[in-house]
Design goal:
Number of domains: 2
CATH topology of the largest domain: Jelly Rolls
Structural class: mainly beta
Distance between the termini: 124 Å
CATH architecture of the largest domain: Sandwich
Radius of gyration: 32 Å
């Protein structure tokens, strides 16, 4: 009985520590700055420091930062990234951080054979951790690219919770602001970030001096030509190109 209680306490220790919303800085390379939630000026971030909920971190060119979660999970923050530490529950998921811009790779530990119920947010996307390794990249236009490297990851758009994309290992998706996630593709495939709308210019019918359609336009009516099954266009049709067909007769019966 004592052994069971001891094991339970050991399992709860990481959760209790995480409840305080702390992340530990285990490695720093290059220029990395940190600012506390109290809005103090940015200062140089050094290994061994703990970061609290609401604190902001930013990495400079060529920099890399590794942050540890008390349960053994960790994340690798790439250069030119900016993030804010979070700690709140949304349903059955616990928010880990908000990535404003840049790239972060997450390595999530499994407890009891299942990944921890973490969630990562961006200005555009919500990423629910169902796998153990995934990567999130956010550019200046707030386009979020999510790659699943191991396990599964669920992705949906901020403000559009009625549709999500499930990424299997080796698949990725892209989330544009205000749009549903794109269908998953291979991590090696190219994602088209820009939307291209092809515009087709239509010809304006010719008119005569009075502003009415010319006889040539009437004889080659576009609507008639687009209806290939029109019975009037059949071989037995009574239509004719003669302009006399529609003239009224001037001969009266005697």
């Amino acid at each position: 009985m004592r052994k069971v209680v001891l094991v339970a306490l050991l399992l709860l220790l990481p959760a209790a520590s995480w409840a305080q919303g702390t992340l530990k800085v285990s490695s720093v390379a290059g220029p990395v700055e940190w600012r506390a939630v109290s809005n103090k000026p940015f200062t140089v971030l050094t290994p061994g420091r703990t970061i609290q909920v609401g604190d902001e971190v930013r990495t400079g060119p060529g920099a890399q930062l590794i942050l540890e979660v008390p349960d053994g999970s960790y994340m690798v923050v790439s250069e030119n990234s900016k993030l804010v530490v979070e700690d709140f529950w949304s349903g059955n998921l616990r928010s880990l951080m908000s990535l404003m811009v840049g790239k972060v790779r997450f390595y999530v530990q499994r407890l009891g054979g299942r990944p921890n119920p973490y969630r990562v947010t961006t200005p555009t996307a919500l990423i629910a951790v169902r796998g153990t390794t995934f990567e999130v990249t956010v550019d200046e236009a707030q386009f979020a690219e999510v790659r699943c490297l191991e396990g599964r990851v669920a992705v949906e758009t901020v403000g559009l919770p009625d549709r999500e994309v499930i990424l299997e290992a080796g698949r990725k998706t892209l989330v544009r602001p205000g749009e549903y996630p794109l269908p998953p593709v291979s991590n090696d495939a190219e994602l088209i970030k820009s939307r291209v709308i092809h515009l087709v210019k239509k010809n304006i019918p010719d008119t005569n001096t009075n502003g009415a359609p010319s006889a040539d336009v009437l004889a080659h009516d576009n609507d008639r030509r687009n209806r290939t099954s029109d019975p009037l266009g059949a071989p037995n049709s009574r239509t004719t190109s003669s302009t006399d067909r529609a003239k009224p007769s001037l001969n009266y019966p005697r």
